[in-house]
Fold this protein.
Amino acid sequence: DVDGARRALDQLRKTFPDSNEAKNAIPMLAAALASSGRTKQAAETYAEMFADAAKYAPSQFMDAARTLNEAGQYDLAVQACDIVLKGDSKGYTTTAMLLRTRVLNAAANKSSSGDAAKAADYAAKAYLQLEAIMEQYGRTTIAIDAEKLLVTDVASTVIGLLPKSTALCEAVIFKGTPK
């Protein structure tokens, strides 16, 4: 009973606001909502975390990003990755960068049948994210993972969208943010 769990977690947060359980209430509830197929409510619940990001651990935002990506809530998933990337969570930086790229690529693929400009924007951001990873990390494992992601996933998305977007062409050719 997700509604009962929400009431119990809300009560826990009010009664014991400084407890570990209270601090984990929002991510736990959001994950429960997502696993029960209530993705809109899960996204809204995860958005509560974004309002007060300092209260939550990078791992909770990474879990949120994965769940939101699976639920097709790509913009929120990118936002969760961005929070991790902007924080002091060095241990999660490369994982967040790669996950952000996968989310952007999934968003590009989802949008490609409808809004070509939006799809191209997502694809350009995914491509540029991978380029940045490869440049920043040289021949390390993370850069190799980024190259693999580029070859296996992002390149096919970009190639499919190139004819539809001059902005995407500019991003790929000039390695800059599309206009």
Q: What stands out?
A: The radius of gyration is 18 Å.
